[in-house]
């Protein structure tokens, strides 16, 4: 019992207990790391609101809001202000612990979990597909779990050991996964960058629409090519070996991809010679409408009834195309009108010109002009000619408006629009009898 009251013996026991805890339970380092994480919460809470306001201002960056994925990403960022600050502070404390030679396993655990959570939130915001979003979440949590238990490096070494040697080239499972991940990220970055540059190019009004589309397509092609080359270089592919691959592609193009390449080259020619451009009103075959967009393989033409035709670029090069707004947006329309022979054609011509001039879309200079085109079987044939400057708004509606005005004007001034007249002659041995049929048509019947 005297040993329990001996101060020297108590000190020895305490030192032994502390040494056992430090060697077996590591209570003190764990408590220190937990305390450091809890202390990091305080500055993270204080800095959360200022950082959240700064991140919310990014939503006013209109140049980037046209991309739906980036718009969703900017909407999520203000909510991630607290975990972003917290993980930065924890990584700073972890770096200090490493320099001081202290244990940092708990700090690394918390940082890995926060990194996985932030990455999942950002990834699911950008990717709208639920399958891909779930895949990103599984991969992120899996990597975080491997990093926590210390199996990440052994798992990488295991995947890298599963390799196949083809000559001097080595293909491993880890290299393939790394190439796929790099390619996906680089393609997304290239696509996003091309959208940004395309919006910037469209704001340069000194460039014609066709040149803007050509520059955007070429820039997108260059960025995607660079992304693919960088992805191949990450797995150690010798880019000089692509010469053989390029030759194989050339042979394939020569035999099986002639039409596809013809459409691609035709699209470049259309953009270079500026024969058609977005917004032009064209007619090719039975298709009439205005050009919505110029693609690398096809041109989208939208008709008045809302139907959108995807016309191969080769057809626009080899076939005859009516471009109503190639060099001038002014378009002359011709509307035939017939009047009865008993009516005054001079007065009818005057009424037709006035009826066409009432329409807002009809130009005053040059104004409407009605001509006498001939003497038909049933009527005096007139033709109303007038000009418009907005063919993209349609022809049928303006022609209908002019004809309705002509109808009203003819009705008010008793100008008759005749019915067709036909004479039927029947011959027989008994003679001929003429029978008048109502409706300005006369039938001569022979008996």
> How much helicity do the residues have?
55-70%
Total helical elements: 15
- The shape, in one word, is elongated
Low-confidence stretches: 436-447
- Backbone structural class: alpha+beta
Order of the strands making up the biggest sheet: 6-5-4-3-7
Fraction in beta strands: 15-25%
Query: How do the helices and strands follow one another from N- to C-terminus?
Result: HHHHHHHHEEHHHHEEEEHEEHEEHEE
Count of DSSP E strands? 12
Radius of gyration over all CA atoms, rounded: 40 Å
* Rounded average pLDDT: 76
- What is the CA–CA distance across the termini? 154 Å
Q: What composes the largest sheet?
A: 5 strands, antiparallel
Domain Mechanosensitive ion channel MscS C-terminal: 334-417
Transmembrane segments: 25-47, 80-100, 106-124, 131-152, 172-197, 218-237, 243-272
Pfam families: MS_channel_1st, MS_channel_2nd, MS_channel_3rd
Keywords: Cell membrane, Membrane, Transmembrane, Transmembrane helix
Helix/strand layout:
Layout: H1 7-25, H2 27-57, H3 62-65, H4 68-76, H5 81-100, H6 105-126, H7 130-149, H8 152-161, E1 163-166, E2 169-172, H9 173-202, H10 209-234, H11 242-255, H12 258-273, E3 281-284, E4 287-294, E5 298-302, E6 308-312, H13 313-318, E7 322-323, E8 331-339, H14 345-357, E9 369-375, E10 380-388, H15 396-412, E11 432-437, E12 441-446
Antiparallel strand pairs: 1-2, 3-4, 3-7, 4-5, 5-6, 8-10, 9-10, 11-12
Keywords: Cell membrane, Membrane, Transmembrane, Transmembrane helix
InterPro entries: LSM_dom_sf (IPR010920), MS_channel_1st (IPR049142), MS_channel_C (IPR049278), MscS-like_channel (IPR052702), MscS_beta-dom_sf (IPR023408), MscS_channel_2nd (IPR006685), MscS_channel_C_sf (IPR011066), MscS_channel_TM-2 (IPR011014)
Membrane topology: Multi-pass membrane protein
């Amino acid at each position: 019992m005297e040993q329990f009251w001996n101060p020297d013996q108590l000190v020895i026991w305490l030192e032994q207990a502390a040494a056992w805890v430090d060697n077996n339970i590591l209570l003190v380092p764990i408590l220190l790391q937990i305390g450091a994480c809890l202390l990091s919460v305080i500055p993270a809470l204080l800095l959360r609101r200022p950082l959240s306001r700064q991140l919310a201002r990014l939503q006013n960056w209109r140049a980037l809001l046209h991309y739906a994925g980036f718009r969703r990403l900017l909407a999520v960022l203000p909510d991630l202000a607290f975990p972003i600050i917290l993980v930065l502070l924890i990584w700073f404390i972890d770096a200090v612990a490493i320099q001081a030679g202290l244990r940092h396993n708990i700090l690394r655990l918390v940082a890995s979990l926060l990194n996985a959570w932030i990455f999942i939130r950002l990834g699911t915001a950008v990717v709208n597909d639920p399958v891909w979003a779930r895949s990103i979440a599984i991969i992120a949590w899996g990597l975080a779990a491997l990093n926590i238990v210390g199996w990440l490096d052994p798992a990488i070494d295991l995947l890298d050991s599963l390799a196949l040697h083809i000559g001097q080239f080595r293909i491993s499972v880890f290299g393939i996964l790394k190439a796929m991940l790099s390619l996906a990220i680089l393609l997304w970055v290239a696509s996003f960058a091309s959208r940004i540059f395309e919006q910037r190019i469209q704001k340069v009004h000194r460039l014609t629409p066709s040149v803007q589309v050509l520059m955007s397509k070429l820039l997108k092609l260059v960025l995607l090519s660079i992304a693919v080359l960088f992805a191949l270089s990450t797995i150690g592919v010798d880019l000089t070996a692509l010469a053989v691959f390029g030759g194989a592609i050339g042979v394939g193009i020569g035999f099986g991809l002639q039409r596809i390449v013809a459409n691609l080259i035709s699209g470049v020619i259309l953009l270079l010679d500026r024969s058609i451009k977005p917004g032009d009103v064209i007619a090719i075959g039975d298709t009439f409408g205005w050009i919505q967009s110029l693609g690398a393989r096809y041109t989208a033409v939208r008709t008045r009834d809302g139907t959108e035709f995807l016309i191969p670029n080769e057809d626009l090069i080899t076939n005859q195309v009516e471009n109503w707004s190639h060099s001038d947006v002014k378009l002359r329309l011709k509307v035939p009108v017939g009047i009865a022979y008993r009516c005054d054609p001079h007065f009818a011509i005057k009424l037709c010109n006035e009826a066409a001039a009432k329409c807002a879309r009809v130009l005053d200079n040059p104004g409407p002009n009605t001509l006498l085109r001939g003497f038909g079987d049933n009527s005096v044939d007139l033709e109303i000619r007038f000009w418009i400057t907005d063919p993209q708004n349609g022809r049928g509606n303006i022609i209908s408006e002019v004809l309705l005005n002509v109808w009203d004007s003819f009705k008010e001034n008793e100008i008759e629009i005749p019915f067709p007249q036909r004479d039927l002659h029947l011959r027989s041995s008994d003679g001929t009898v003429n029978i008048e049929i109502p409706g300005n048509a006369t039938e001569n019947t022979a008996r």
